[in-house]
Each structure stands twice: as structure tokens, then as C-alpha cells.
Design brief:
heterodimer; A: alpha/beta; Rossmann fold; eleven-stranded mixed sheet; disordered N terminus; B: alpha+beta; six-stranded mixed barrel; four-stranded antiparallel sheet; binds adenosine-5'-triphosphate; binds magnesium ion; P-loop_NTPase (chain A); ABC_transpr_LolD-like (chain A); transmembrane transporter activity (chain A); ATP-binding (chain A); Putative ABC transport system ATP-binding protein (chain A)
Chain lengths: 257, 610
Amino acid sequence: MASVVSETAFAPMVCLEGLVKTRSQSESVFELEVPGFTVQPGQMVAVIGESGCGKSTLLDIIALVMTPSAVARFEIANGAAGMVSDVAALWANDDEDALTALRRDAFGYVLQTGGLLPFLSVRQNICLPARIKGRRLSQARVEGLAKSLGLAGCLDRMPVSLSIGQRQRAAIARALAHQPRLLLADEPTAAVDKARARSIMDDMQRLAREESVAVVVVTHDVELIVDRADAAYTFETVQLSEQHSRSICRPAEGLCP
Amino acid sequence: MSCANPLKHIPALAASHLKHEWILTFCLVIALAAVIAPLLVLLGLKYGTIQTLRERLVEDPIFREIRPSQTREFSPQWFDELQSWPGIGFVTPTILPLSSVISVVASGGRNSELFDLIPTAAGDPLLLENGGVVPTDGEVVLSAEAARRSAVAPGDEITVKVTRSRGGRPEHVEERLRVVSILSPRAGSLARVYAPLAFVLDVEGYKEGYAAPSRGWPGDTPQPYPSFDGALLLMPKPMLPIARSGLIINTGFGRIVDGSAKDAAELLGFPVPEELTVYNLLAPGAPVTITNLRAIEQKLRGQTGVLLPYVRGLDMAVDGSRTAPIGLSIDERQAELLGIHSTPWGRFGGTLPENGQLVHVLWPAATPTTATEIAVRAVGVAELDFPLRVAGSTSLSRPVVPVELLGVLRTATQRPIVFNPATDHFEMARGGYRGFRLYARSIDDVPALYHRLKSEGIEVIAEVEAIERIQVLDRGLSRLFWLIALLGLFGSTAVLVSSLYAAVERRRRDLGVLRLLGFARRHVFFFPIAQGIMIAALGLMLGFGGYAALAQVINHAFASELAPGEAFCTLPAQYLPIFCLATLVLATLASLVAAWRATGIDPAEVIREQ
Ligand SMILES: Nc1ncnc2c1ncn2[C@@H]1O[C@H](COP(=O)(O)OP(=O)(O)OP(=O)(O)O)[C@@H](O)[C@H]1O
Ligand SMILES: [Mg+2]
């Protein structure tokens, strides 16, 4: 592991430089370029863009479930102070176990539609990430999280019996319960109405701040993240040919302080 | 990095999943149990019926018995050899059925009953496995029927009466014996008395006229009879043709041939006076016996003449050299006619010379000897050694012995004869036994022994068919079981493979989420395997439950046909772990396809899937 862990004075949570991801299906080619993407610890970063510009692709790469086609630098802060894991090297070595372990230890993930396991109760869903990390969650923490997300009465119900919004909040609880350092959320509010979306976004922001968790949230709704995000990235799409499109991810000017 | 072991959470997650989809799980379990239960019942039926049939055979020694179906002679050496055959449990010689009837009176009882006397010996399964003990000398064991008819109980004494008729007079001896046990009726329905072989042989000997000195039973010692090749009749005058042709009628002789003094000298070994008329009496195809010779002497009564039996071509070594002694037994009157000395053992009569004179010899005076005993080895059925005692000298050129001795030695070329130095008598060697009682070690040994005896030309009877029928049935049922098991195996494996595979396909997204939450490929690999094992375990439980219920019903339904402790449908305990293990291994193998499929799930693909 020594080769993939190096010490820096002030390690960002996520540091991406010179990333290229090419996705092609039959004739059509989609190219995602990310010259630079940084998430500082405790920061909330918004990724904004219209449909099909590569937001989910970027998030999957950060979530370590998709391999970059090329990357100059890809580091994720390790638990220990100042230590970073060299993800680029891990991918190069195809060290799936290390990537999985890093994901298990450091990340929480909220899917577009929650992604709760339907065969576990809400409580079991929330406890699962901690358990597979080898930790036990105190019931107080579970109850506390549930209460702060308005899920107090839903803990022992199965996900099918929850509303879409409740499921989404349960997914947030699950993503945060095991105290990750980075929360990834891919359009967590896509399936709910605006008012509810706002409250979900508020909850997430509040909890992330309380727990000092860095957040990367993907959305196409600019309104939702104005005033909330510490930084924002957006996409610039170039249609190279009829079949070939390129999307470049850059920091969004003027959206955030 | 934490030392978490996500793998240990897989079984619980797999179980939760099965519980969540309990209807599908239940159907799968039922499908498996529907294969397992009938297979178990089938296996139980096969095992149970075969076991019941086998035990019925195994329990009763009758099924291990191999009996000769015809009476013939079996030499003691044959029995020695038989003992070394593999698969022999017990064997004892037996006697002629006719010689084995004895009359038995219970002490205090009046009625005498005729029972069959059967020899036994240590280890006799017929006795030991039918509630009896093996009797020692002075003891007997009775069959149930014999005990019923003579009304005796174990511990009682019985009197055994052995009868014979000798010389037209009835004779009998009695022996008191103690009944040590009575066999269960299963051992046979005939009235039988089981006694040690030695006693049975003494009874046989007594019935044949012989004595049993150790029991104080009187009778002959089994002396061999002399036999001859022919006889010479020497007459001072030729006979009338009518007397000549009438001489041999009804005597057992077939032909009477005119001979010369030269012929006589050649046959007898010494010259006879030229003036005597020589007739050669022959019985072609049969030995000449004392009875034949007596009949001739009867006819010659009142006439002058000498009847001299002769033996030809005897092979023997006297004092180490191959000489044929002259056989001669004549009195003074006969000696006078022949112009030689008489013999001290007298003339040829109806019996063998007594007082050891049978082995007396007159040594040629031309080659005097100081020895009193001369060793002889005669070649017969077996080599026969005996001493000749020098009783005088003779003017003849070769040693002279009683002609009866040559007759005995001739018999020895046809039947085994031994010389008993204690009594100075020749005795018929025990020729052999007239049958045997044989039990194989186990019923599985019976067919091989049966066929081996048959291949030796011994006609035997055994329950080979019953045993082979069971073996054939066992093989057939085993084949049937494996065929059906194979069919069930294919079916249930296909069901498991497809169901588990479908479950993985159905739950792709969930498995992807598990990957996202931090399970590696190798962890989700075990998700379907855990499910396969759980379903198999549940199926086994339900299957065993179904089997137990059905077995109960089957055994209950056939209860009237079964002895207590017997069951038509039963499985030995050691089958169960094997069966369970086989099922679980199979379930694991069946889930491998699904497991491989699960490892192929890419979380990036599924997290966007709806
Ligand atoms: N397997 C694939 N092969 C080729 N192109 C793909 C593949 N998957 C996605 N793409 C393309 O990549 C582009 C980016 O997809 P992505 O899912 O990242 O978009 P997105 O920004 O998340 O859109 P949305 O807002 O609708 O979720 C799209 O144009 C899509 O057509
Ligand atoms: Mg998307």
C-alpha cells in the first residue's frame, strides 16, 4: 500500500487532474474531460449540467466504480491525517480489493432513487455499511439520524412501504451513518417535488456540515444548490461530429462564493 | 484501512433476501423436497426390504447349509482339504442314513421312539443358533420334535438303544446319555438326536457288526476279508465229465479249465506231482472269496483232492528284496498228496488263522536266517507295512506264508487296509464318510461354495436360488434407485441452477448496490452459493420430514408381514450424513453458475438501472 499512499501537507478530499473518460457504444463516442476537480474536506461541491453531459459518469469515476480512460492525478484522502490513496495507481494495478475497501471506508453514496436494499428493513439498510466496515452502530445514532431526517417512525418498515422522498432520506441516512469522509449523491432529489427536494437538500447539507463530511452532489437544478454549495462545476459540450461529442468539466463561475 | 470482513455478512444478507422472497423460496424448497423425499423413501425401501430378506436368511442357518444330494464316499483327506476352503463356516462328516436310526427311551418312560442320529461338533451353527449347545461325549441335543415325542426336557437322561442283527441273531447295546439342550422348532421338523461325531461313528460301526471297545460294545474288529484270483483243484484221478461240469454250478466260479502240473507250479510257486490232475477254477470279473471256495469244498466232500486258492502278481518287498512268497495253508493229508510238508497254521478254512499265525512265515532252509521278524512292505491302495514272524523253515525255495495273508494283501490292492501292531491284525482302514453337514460362513459365501462343490462333481443342494435371488434383487433395485436418483438429480439441479440464476438476474441492481456499499466481487460470489445451500438445507429438512412420515405409513401398512424390529422402509444412520453432504455439494455446484454471474455485475451499470 505504501506506493499508493503519499503524504502531503494539506490533502484535498478528492483531487483529480487531467482525467479523460471515453465511452462509446457502436458508432457514437462520448468523451469526458476533466482538467481539474478538487473537493476539500467538509466542502459541498455541486456538479451541474444538462442531461447527458456526463455528470453521472464523473460521479462514478469519483465513486471508484468506473475506471478512467486516462488520468494524470487521482487521489483520495485517506483516513489518517495527511495521507492520500493514489487511485490512479490502484486502477493501473487493477487492485479491486483496495478500491472496494477504500469505497467501503470513506464513501457514502446516495443514488438517484435511493438504492435501498428491498429485502432489508430501513434500520438494517442504515446499519449495513457500518456493519460491513466491521463496526456496530449505536442505536442512539441510528435513531438520531432517523429523527433528524424525519424518519423516526419508519425505521422498522421495509423500503417498499416508504414514499419516494422517505426512501431518499433513508438513503441519505444510510450514506452518512457509518461516518464516511465523502458523500456522493447523484441527483438525490430527481424523484421528488421541488419543496421536498429543497428540504432533502437542506437535510443533507446540514448533516454533512455537522458531521464534517465532504459532499459531491450532482444536479441539473441550479436553484437547489445556489447558497448551499461551496464550489460548483459545470460542463461545456462540444459536438465534434455527428457521432462524437466531447464534454469538458470546469469550475462554474459566479454560482458560488 | 479497517480489518473488516464483509464476507461474514453475506449469509445473513442472503437469508434476508430468501425471507423477503419467501414465496419463491418456499416453492424452491418444496421442489427440492419433492425430489429428496421420494428418493429417500426409495432408498429406504430398497435398503429395508433387502435387509429384511437378508436378515431372514442370515438369521436361519438353514440358508447357509449345503447338503450333498447323493450318498457317496468322502475321504478323511477330502474333509481336511475342505476345511481350508474360503467361506466354510462349519463342516462335519456324516454317516449313512440307514445306520443313523436309534431307538430312544426317556429314563422313566416306557415308549421307545426311533430317532435319527446326527453327528455334530464344536461350532455347529444349527445347534448354536437355535438355542442349543454343542454336546460333548455322553451328552446329546434333541430336536424339538424328538423332545416332544420322548417327552424330555434339558437335563433329563435318555437311554439310547442301538440294535443290529449278526449271524441272524438280533443284538443290541444301550447307552445312557444326558440331554443338554433342545433346539427350537426352526432347526427342523424331524425327530433328531445330535451327538458328537465319535459316538455316531461307534453307532455306525456297531450296526455294521463291529465292536466299540471304548464303550464296551462287543462285535467284530473290522477285519479285512481275503480274496483270490482263482483256485487250483488237484485230484489223484480225473473227474467224470459230468462231475467236472457240475462242480462249479452255483459256487460263484464261472469256468473250470484243465491244467497241467507245469501250470500249477507256475501259479503256486512250487512243483506239484506229475500224476495229479490239475483243474483251474476261475471267476472272471470277480474276486474269489471264501464263500466260493467253501461251496466247492462242499461239493468235493468225500473225494480225495486239494483245493488251493492262489493270488497272482502281488507287488511286495520282503526283507527289502522283491520276492513273492508262496501262499500255502495245508494239513498233513493234503501235504501227503502234494508230497511236501504241511504248514503249522493248518489247512485253508473259513476263517483267518488266529493267534497271529496270519503273519507267520516259513523261511527257506537253503538261505537260513537268524531273524525272528522280517519287515514287509506291500503295495496296495496305500503302502502297507507289517512284520512277518519266522515260525520255522521250509524246503521250498521261497518263503511260505498262509495263503489267507496273500488273500488279505490282494484285498489291500482294492481297499485301504492297515496293520494294527497292537492286535497283530489287519484292519480295514476307515474308507471314508458317507456324507457331510456343511455350513457356509455367511449367505454370501453359499453360491461360491455351491458352485465349487458342483465343479468337483459333488451334487449338492443349497438355498442358492434364494440367496442369488436376493443378490439379483439388490443389484436390480440399486440400479433402479440410481436411475431414478439420476433423474431426480437432473431435475432438481436444473431447478436450482435456473432459480438461483434468475434470482441473480432479478436482483442485479441490489447486488450492484452491495458492490457499491463495499462488497468485492469475491464477496458477492458467495451470495447465490449461500442461498443454494440454505435452500438445499431447507429442502433436506422438509424431505426428511416427508420421508419419515411416509416410512411410518409404509411400515405400518406392512406391519402384519413383519416381525418386530423389522422394517420395510428404513435407512441406516450412516446414510444420512452422506445423503445430506451429497445434496449440499450438489446445491453448491448448482449455484456456481449464478455465483459466476453475480461476480460479473458492474456497480456502475446497475446504479443507474431502474
Ligand atoms: N455505456 C455507454 N456507452 C457509450 N456512451 C454512454 C454510455 N453510457 C452513457 N453514455 C453516454 O455518456 C453521456 C453521459 O452520460 P451520463 O449518464 O453521465 O449523463 P448525465 O449527465 O448523468 O445525464 P442525466 O442528467 O440525464 O443523468 C451520455 O451522452 C450518454 O449517452
Ligand atoms: Mg445522470
